[in-house]
Structures are given as C-alpha cells and as structure tokens.
Design brief:
Strand order of the largest sheet: 2-3-1-4-8
Structural class: alpha/beta
Number of strands: 8
Helix content: 40-55%
CATH superfamily: P-loop containing nucleotide triphosphate hydrolases
Radius of gyration: 17 Å
Bound molecules: adenosine-5'-diphosphate, adenosine monophosphate
Number of domains: 1
C-alpha cells in the first residue's frame, strides 16, 4: 500500500495547517491545502466565469467561500499528482464533498473539534510565515525570535482575514456550509473525532495514532 490519503476536517483555526505539517514530516505525504493554493492565486483573473467577483482574493478577504468551480479544479489537479496526501481546507460544502468522491478514495477522515471562543483567540493571534506558510501564535506557539520564522527565517505576518470581523464571518460561513460536511462524513466507519482544544502535542499524538491505524 502507498502513502495514506487523509482528509483533515475542522473549523478555521482548529489546527489543521499546524498538524498537517506534522503529517508531512512523519508520513511523507503531500499537504494539499486550498487556502494556501488560493492565497498564491489571489489575483488570478476569473472574470470569464461570470461570477460576482473577478479574483479569488475578493472573496477571501471578506471570509466568503471562493466559488466551487475554481476550488474544485485546484484540488483535482493537486490530487492527481499526489501519492499520499493530507487534504486541508476542502471540502467546505456538500457540493465540494460530492466532487471529492469522484476524484479519489480516502484512507482516513479526522475532524478536529474546537469551541468558537477558542477559535477566535487562535485566529486573531495567528501569525504566518510570508515565505513558507508555517503557522505560529503570539501566545500559544511562539517562534524562537519574535517575528521571524523558525523554519526558513521569513517574516511573520497577520493574514488579512484573521482580523476580527473577517474571523466572525468565516465562523458563520463554517457553521452554515461546512458543519453539514462534517456531519456527512461522521457516519463513516473510518471517521475519527479529536478534541482539538488539547495541547499541540496531545492533538498530534492522537492524530498520529489515528493515521497509523489507516496504514
Ligand atoms: P487551521 O489551519 O485549522 O485554520 P492553524 O493550524 O493555522 O488552523 O491554527 C490556528 C492558530 O492556532 C495558529 O496560530 C496555531 O499556532 C494555533 N494552534 C493550533 N493548534 C493549537 C493548539 N492545540 N493549542 C493552541 N494553539 C493552537
Ligand atoms: P483557509 O486558509 O483554509 O482558512 O482558507 C482561507 C480562505 O480561502 C477561505 O476563507 C476561503 O475564502 C478560501 N477557501 C479555502 N478553501 C476553500 C474551499 N474549499 N472552498 C471555497 N473557498 C475556500
């Protein structure tokens, strides 16, 4: 059997990106994340699709979902070239979940659960490396040198959509569109729910054990 194909679910700020880095290191899988892919293509011209806005960035800065046709194409391309992967940030609605079924078979599905108050603290305090995308937190996960990435020396910045208004909107969008996706997967025998409010290390131990069970 090849490398595992893992779907990591959870609200914005649950720790998906942070724990995906651990999975990449431990299992050699690829990190397929629609958030990072879209951030690299914020200015892409999508005007020919005749949608509300002409670039992904206009949806993202407000915390709205980028339209399915844009996101589905990104994921399909990334999954075709990956052996094992951890998929993070997709699917975010039931239509995307249906698309995913036609693209690949998953070996494991893990959901990280975190309460809304904790999510707001995590997202507004998150800092990300401008160069490599590594996540930090001003209180919970500090770099060795303030403002500097431990991994690559890049500058740590705050994402525009991590300001409080956009955070609240993203959590509403999650409740309306993405909670039903978690509900949908929760009936599957290989679904594992992890308490994402535990320490970074404890979440990692439980996630690692869940993924080991799939291989
Ligand atoms: P997601 O990718 O799910 O949006 P991140 O991995 O970026 O979430 O985590 C959001 C923020 O919360 C980051 O600043 C990260 O450092 C912090 N964080 C992640 N997991 C934990 C944890 N278990 N305890 C405390 N802070 C955490
Ligand atoms: P993230 O980095 O996962 O928090 O995603 C940041 C932003 O990118 C989201 O608020 C959306 O605007 C957009 N985005 C990421 N993934 C998706 C997706 N699967 N569907 C639609 N929009 C997405």
């Amino acid at each position: 059997m090849g490398q595992p194909k893992i779907l990591l679910l959870g609200p914005p700020g649950a720790g998906k990106g942070t724990q995906s880095s651990n999975l990449v290191e431990a299992f050699g899988v690829e990190h397929v994340t629609t958030g990072d892919a879209l951030r690299s293509n914020k200015e892409m011209d999508i005007s020919d699709l005749g949608l509300e806005y002409d670039t992904p960035g206009e949806y993202m800065d407000q915390g709205e979902l980028v339209p399915d046709e844009v996101v589905n194409a990104i994921v399909e391309k990334a999954l075709t070239s990956a052996d094992g992967f951890v998929l993070d940030g997709y699917p975010r609605n039931l239509e995307q979940a249906e698309q995913l079924e036609s693209m690949t078979d998953l070996d494991g599905i893990v959901s990280l659960s975190v309460s809304e108050d904790e999510l707001v603290d995590r997202l507004t305090g998150r800092r990300v490396c401008d160069e490599c995308g590594e996540n930090y937190h001003v209180e919970f996960d500090q770099p060795e040198n303030e403002g500097v990435c431990d991994e690559c020396g890049g500058e740590l910045i705050q994402r525009e959509d991590d300001e409080e208004d956009a955070v609240r909107n993203r959590l509403d969008v999650f409740a309306e569109n993405t909670e039903p996706v978690i509900e949908y997967y929760s009936d599957r025998a290989d679904f594992v729910d992890i308490d994402g409010e535990q320490s970074l290390d404890t979440v990692w131990e439980e996630l690692q054990a869940a993924v080991e069970d799939t291989v």
